[in-house]
Amino acid sequence: IVVKFCASVKMSTIEKLSIQGIRSFGSNSEDVQTITFSSPVTLILGENGCGKTTIIECLKYGLTGEVPPGGDHGRSFVHDPKIFNQAGTLGQIKLEVSNLQGKRISVCRSMKISNKRGKYSFETLDATMNYIDGKAGGSATHSISKRCVDVDVAMCQFMGVSKAIINNVLFCHQENSSWPLDESKKLKDKFDAIFGITEFNKTIERIIKMRKEEAENLKVKEANLGLLVHLKQEMDDKSLTLKKAQEKCAAIELECQRCDDEMKPIDARLAEIRNVEYEVGKHQAKKVEIETEQKNCQEQILALSSNIKVPYEGSREELEQEISDFGQKMLEKRQHRNVLDKKVNTLRQEEKTLQKNFTDLDKRRILLMQQRQKEQECISKRAEQLKTLCQQLGITLTEDLEFQPESVPGVLEKIENSLLNKECSITESVAQTDKDDSERQREIDTQRVELTKVEEGIVAHEKQKTLNEKELTSITKEIAEIETSARRIKILSENIERLMKMMDEMNSKCNQETMRADIAENKARILKLQEQFRELDERLTKLNMMSKLTAEITLKQKELEKKELDVKRVKGKHAENFKKLLSRPVEFNYKRAMQLCSEKLRDNIKELNGKSNKLQLEQQSCEIKRKNLKAELLKLEKELEESKEKFTKHVMLQHTRIR
């Protein structure tokens, strides 16, 4: 595995990786492994199964938070808890990276495998991002957890690389490395995700929608502007009419003032006349009051005289004396009545206190009766409980405890004595059982020790047995091989003897020199044929390579044609929109053109918003002015009406005076 870094060009880099409890990396604190990536190249070497792929998987998980494929939904990604017979294991990945601006960030992701009812389940615990300040000596200034922000999206944004590029290009897993040879639909989806075509299409559609909305808003604003212009014209017309009305009002006010000056002496004379009339009215009212009082007194005198049956014949002094005596008697009677009233009140109060005492005594009597019933019930319950207890303890009762409560203490003493005796016997039995249990436990422990020894011996015997069986099988194989080799040796020796005889016969029959020349020629021919075979083999390999390359080129050409067709289709589909949007033909670099167009549209929108805000402010100011002018107009109209009324009154008064 080679991890490259470029020192000359600024780019996002991975600086450090810490792994704990992932696959073959241990889950204890002392098993933490840290890798610092050096610039420009970091080379990772190792045997199969030592954890090279795990490092790439950890890098991918640290950046995207995705579990590698074939990991049983993360259960085989974390260190296996069955190795040390644990209920669960914790895994942690810490990754430190820096972006284009030289800012550093470290992300810490924790996960857990736990055993729930015999099934292992994978669970992501927490993911925190720590922003590291380079000036402060590499200390983390602040941290954000996954509850506040989507850590996967934040890491991709910080690195400046999309999630699809990290998954499919930078840290593509070896199981998914053949995705360029997938079906066309899947391949198109992958390329769309890598190059962000779907997002690009969505942005174009969003821009078109925004443009339509802004065009509609602009139409509305233009309509509002026309309305404001109309309102302004109306306001100008009304202001002219108002000026004319004000001039008329000023002339009318001058006329009214002149009339008021003429009316002042007349008003003064009228006020004097009104005062005189008011005084005359007062005197007449007093006269009427006095007359009515006189009439009432005469009526009262007549009524009193009619009520007197027998007129008093004595003198006035005697009458006064009689009246004073009658008053004295009435006072004495009233005093006597007051004394009697006081006595009645005291008697009523005494009656109330007695009634209250009676009710209190009645209540106490009822309460005492209830208490007596409860006590009787308690005594009967106690007697029953004591009877049952005595029956359980085997104590004989001769008295009736319900009607003879004085015998209860003696019964209680008997019960206590029997209970003490039973407690003693229970303690003795408990001690005996404890002793028996301890002896049995010792015996069990000794038997367990012997059992373990026996099991160990059985295991050792089984191991020895398996070893012996293996040795036996190997020895039998060797014996069989030796036997087969001996048979082959016999056959070969027989063949050699036969060949030697044939060779002797051939030597006697043929010439050796001619044979040697033929052999040399055959060897040379064989060498030439071998060279030709090698050349043909090389040509074949080259042809195979060429055929593979041509097949790949044809595939690529087909894919290119499909992509060009898709691009043409997209261009044809959105050609009118592009023309409307961009107002010029674009053959390449659509992204840049769209960015420029979106920036222009944003500037136009900002300008339109500014204009609309200004127009709104002007409209508000015009509305305020219009309201003020309306209020002033109403005031002036009221004043006009009042002045008209005054003028009409004044004219009427003058007419009446002239008449």
Briefly summarize what is shown.
This protein is about 70% helix and about 10% strand. It contains ten helices and eight strands.
List keywords for this structure.
alpha+beta, 659 residues, six-stranded antiparallel beta sheet, 8 strands, 10 helices, 72% helix, Rossmann fold, flat, two-stranded antiparallel ribbon
Your description of this structure?
The chain has a six-stranded antiparallel β-sheet, covered by helices on one side. It has helices at residues 52-64, 151-159, 163-170, 184-195, 197-307, 316-393, 408-509, 512-573, 575-582, 590-658, and strands spanning 2-4, 13-20, 33-36, 41-43, 88-98, 104-116, 119-133, 139-145. The chain is α+β, with helices and mostly antiparallel strands and 659 residues long. The protein has ten helices and eight strands. Helix 3 crosses helix 4 (184-195), helix 6 (316-393) packs across helix 7 (408-509) and helix 8 (512-573) crosses helix 9. The longest helix is centred in the middle third of the chain and has 111 residues, at 197-307. Strand 6 and strand 7 form a beta hairpin. Helices cover 72% and strands 10% of the residues. The protein is flat, with a radius of gyration of 62 Å. Among the domains are: 2-177, P-loop containing nucleotide triphosphate hydrolases (Rossmann fold, 3-Layer(aba) Sandwich), CATH 3.40.50; 180-267 and 574-659, no CATH class. One of its GO terms (molecular function) is single-stranded telomeric DNA binding. Keywords: Chromosome, Coiled coil, Metal-binding, Nucleus, Zinc. Its cofactor is Zn(2+). It catalyses: ATP + H2O = ADP + phosphate + H(+).
